[in-house]
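User: I'm writing a tutorial on reading structure tokens. Could you give me a worked example: one chain, its sequence, then its tokens, then a sentence or two explaining what the tokens reveal?
Assistant: Sure. Here is the example chain.
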Amino acid sequence: MGAAPLQALATSPELRADPLADDTVARVIDACDSPSGPWTAIGIVNRELARWQTNADLVDWRASPGTPAAIAAALEAYVRAGSALPDWADIGKIGRAEELFMEMSMVSCALLFCASLPECYVLPDLAGVLHTAGQLEQHTDYRVRSTAAMIFPVMMRGGLTTPEGAGVAQVLKVRLIHATIRHLILRTNPARVVAGNERPVIAARRMHGQGLYDTLYANGWDTARHGLPCNQQELAYTLLTFHYVFLRGLHGLGIPFRPEDEEAYLHAWNVMGHVLGIERALMPASMAEAKQLFHQLQQRGRTQSWLPDPRPGLGGALMNMMANEIPLPSFKAFPVLLTRHLCGGATSKDLGLNRCVGLPTWVAFLVTMGVTRAVDWTVRRFVPQFSLCRMVTRAVGYRFTVRMLMSETRPLKLPSTLLNQVNTAVHSWERDPKAPRWVNRLEAKLAGRRQEAA
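And here are its predicted structure tokens:
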């Protein structure tokens, strides 16, 4: 691919969105020509989306009887056009990426909380959309659980490639939600705004409702200043937080993949990005390309301004959510310190995470990281698969995963069959297949003590 991702940045990706999904939403909403039309249309769409549970459900999919003909035609055309994998998809690489995700298990979840999500909040415009969409800094668990509800179906075995998987079905739902967000914030099809057929909506409009869609519709949007909501630049950056930032985090923990495995992981997520509607030119094929594109997008994004800055609120809410799950007061700042370690000083400053941390906690964190890296370097000379850092990170990820994602009282919003598969996979992560048996025995004892304490 060479320099293609960087060349694509020269053609205003902030003013490009997703024609397929945007046109679908516009057709659906235009079909309900009344003051309550948007809400009626969204209700119909949500009902139909609930039927997309597995990839097999998308094959020859038809709208429910009684669905208005125009809406049925729009949704059926969307499924036909959007559900096919690209011709460049490599099933072997996707399968290898699935294996790597399962091998990393709880480490993957820890990196989601302390690397991917924090980096996702760095772009002011992207954070602004999250802020606009219902004050999500006050409902952080919703954002985290929504993200997990997409990641698991994509990365579980066969998620993108088999009829029994659910990755394609879940991603197509997210893609249509993004288009709905764009349409409601702009109060029209984004293509009409970019083409100059309709003026961008800047002034807010009062609404009587208080739901998510009412909030999106009520807020104004300055397209000339911020580009389109959920535009190609933001989508490409978000994709990078899922694959590049994850892989970079493994390097930061001293447990990186082999280069060929890194490329397989990037490839699988790029296939997911295609289904999500991201342009091929904005997808890196290697870690070198991904690193360059990531820094270019962050540099471009940081030049934008959003007042008041929503990023510290989003970052602080995420850290507080994790701190609430840590029982020992002296360790509650560990998520902040781990995020600072994985994301660096600039991101920490953007999110307001560069505040002072108590000296005992700071020293404990440095000692933990220093000792684990030193032990790993020494023991791996004799036991290549050994990783104390992996064990510590798994312990962090285990608590966050079980308490925040696998709660029986608040299960992830997934079809019951898929939710059972996710629960089975997570419980299988209690044993690390890459660790020596004595490490698994020790982790089992620690897990037992955690359950007793809970």
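What the tokens reveal: The first helix runs from residue 4 to 8. The chain has two domains: 4-302, 325-453.
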